[in-house]
Amino acid sequence: MLAIDLGSGGHKVALVANNGDVIASASASIQTCILPHGGAEQDPDEWWNGAIQGAKKVIQKAHVAKEDIVTIGCDSQWSLAVPVDEHGDHLMNAVHWLDTRGGKYNRKIVSGFPSIKGYSLLKLLKWVKLTGMAPTLSGIDSLGHVLFIKNERPEIYRKTYKFLEPMDYLTARLTGRITATQKTMVPFGVGDNRKWGSMQYSAALLALAGLDKAKFPELLLNDGVVGTLKSSVAEELGLLPSTKVVAGISDSNASLIGSGAVLDFETIIYIGTSMYMTCHLPFKKTDLAHVMTTLPAPFKDRYYLLGEQGAGGRCVAFFLKQFIYPDDAFKTGTKPADAYERFNTMATLAPAGSNGVIFLPWLNGSIVPDEQPHARAGFMNIEK
To answer: Which domains are seen in the chain, by residue range?
Structure first.
């Protein structure tokens, strides 16, 4: 299987044997453009070109017969909105999960009386009942991104054939078929998640958000197959056109499966660009008080916990750049190649709980255990 991972910081492509051995791999970085007023975007062309170049390198290094590469699967960062035309070509940069420009539009559609933490109680109950979650007040979900595009880029909204998450954008480019699944469309907040495997959008939630159902893609089964490779892509990669492309998955669920934690309640904490705690569960549940929920997994009738804290490893990069190796009058030199290893070594010296010192995350506030979109980077409880 050719596996394509599209993270916030870069591509990772690997050829994996059916016993789990990694035959060959390649990686490259991706740039995030930080814009005024809470904007953050990435170029889908960079995603696609990086994925294709990585796949070529892996296939070349692996020396495996093309007949033996039978499947391609894509996982990716999510809560990014990519507007595409009928051919699957993007119409603008992808609005990134760090982007908060849609926050005011999310807050508008969820407000009302009686209010609880900024939400109309009745609207909140409807969203949770139908999706298992509610629109973020910060606007970092794909619903906020679509509302930002509709209100501030109306010409793009009018031209948009479908809105996609990154993994579905990649599968569309690979196959020529524009699709998604119940599990990949969760951040748009308009799908019906009451039953695992549903392939329906909610008319009630589309109406609350003021969005057109026609703007959202056909839904496949969570464990479905999108199609086979486009002939032009197969030729470029040196693969057979009959190579199947399976439905995509979010990186949060992919990392859980990749860790080997596939049984119920086996829990991991992941730290990459973002950070989250997750495990598989045999039931659907939402914890509104701590902004945690369960989302559809690719395993039949199974869900996985999402306890997304937002920026995780990106906070470490911010700390090293701004505090340890800043380019200022007190410059301590160029950041060494082993900066993260040194950081880890120093972290082992800190006691559990760090004596009460708390770091507030950079750029897009906090999510779990409490959504605070206005929280900004800084340390609390530091004593001399």
So the answer is: 2-310 (3.30.420.40)
